[in-house]
Design a protein that fits this description.
By secondary structure, this protein is an alpha/beta fold. It folds into three domains: 95 residues, Cobalt-precorrin-4 Transmethylase, domain 1, CATH 3.40.1010.10; 100 residues, Tetrapyrrole methylase, C-terminal domain (Methyltransferase, Cobalt-precorrin-4 Transmethylase, Domain 2, 2-Layer Sandwich), CATH 3.30.950; 183 residues, Vaccinia Virus protein VP39 (Rossmann fold, 3-Layer(aba) Sandwich), CATH 3.40.50.150. It is built from 13 helices and 19 strands. The protein has a seven-stranded mixed β-sheet, sandwiched between helices. The chain has a five-stranded parallel β-sheet with strand order 3-2-4-1-5, sandwiched between helices.
Amino acid sequence: MTIKIIGIGDNGKASLPPLYETFIAESECLIGEERQLAFFPNYAGEKIVIKGGLSALAERLQAETRNAVVLASGDPLFYGIGSYLSKKVEIDIYPNVSSIQLAFAKMGERWQDAEMISVHGRSMKGLAQKIDGKEKVALLTDETNTPAEIAAYLLEYGMAEYEAFVAENLGGQAERTGWYTLEELLEKTISPLNVVILKKVSESPVWTTGIEDEEFYQRKPEKGLITKKEVRILSIAALGLRENSTVWDIGTCTGSMAIEAARIARKGDIFAIEKNAADLENCFKNMKKFRTDFTVVHGKAPDHLQDFKEPDAVFIGGTAGGMEPILDICCERLKENGRIVVNAVTIENLNEAVNGFKKYGFQTNITLIQVSRSKPILHLTRFDALNPIYMITAKRGKGE
């Protein structure tokens, strides 16, 4: 028997068209959250409270032989249970107006050009690069990731150019909407049922791929521990990143490669490791400056790599010796069609990397990068050479 999923608003039965009410009245069991079921005190069939997560609900519905209706908030296919259940059970979906639609209606602005992000039941890790530079962002919140917590997070990353429109209890008797600065939101008590819309009211800083070296916090002297801009651009290109890529940066140092990667793979996951505490401190400063939020651990690879998600791309900028065990875990865990880029400054490391990739049958390409930068000398100009870099790019083909 086909199961119906019906979207319902916070004002209960008043949000339902007559057809939806007929479906509910003719059903034999009504499934939903307690507050949703409370809208139907005179329901004649069995009421079932959703407990135990979506997998348990799917199993229950797969075994259900009665005419059943599942209640969902707003549009079940907008960050709702509809997309999950439709893969598990034969269902018909009857949407209602989503909380985001209602919030933009109260705000009086179009919403087709807004970025939609949910932190409901999710970590805010990576939120900074998803939001940065967007004109409008709609956020679905929860009791942990509250408007106040979101405001504090954005201010930590210097994103004060945003103001927030907060819509509470939309459609209900306690409905309230209003505009707030991020600082005002820090002290504001907001109902747990809310939607936050961020709107950019002043300009954001702009950084393109290939951030200038001097922009980064780094250890001095100038010949410090940073992947130079020209090499960084070529290395980022070699990694073949997509918007949702999972990236490892081994020996991240100031975080320059991880930051560039995070600004490309905004919806992906970035993991970095660095053994030097002083460099790690600069890395955290750079993350805040360039509005990138990713996972960084203090340690020496290959330690901790087993805790990272399987990567689409790996950059190895420094190993402090011990190349073989690092390559082993990177090659073993790299996803199909993934890439590993190793930057080596010595022939010995070049040889070790090439032999390591041969062991796994990876397709390998080597580029010798020799860069010279112009430098004034009196009233003339000369060129100052940077250290040559061997860039080894290895690709895992299908079945390798």
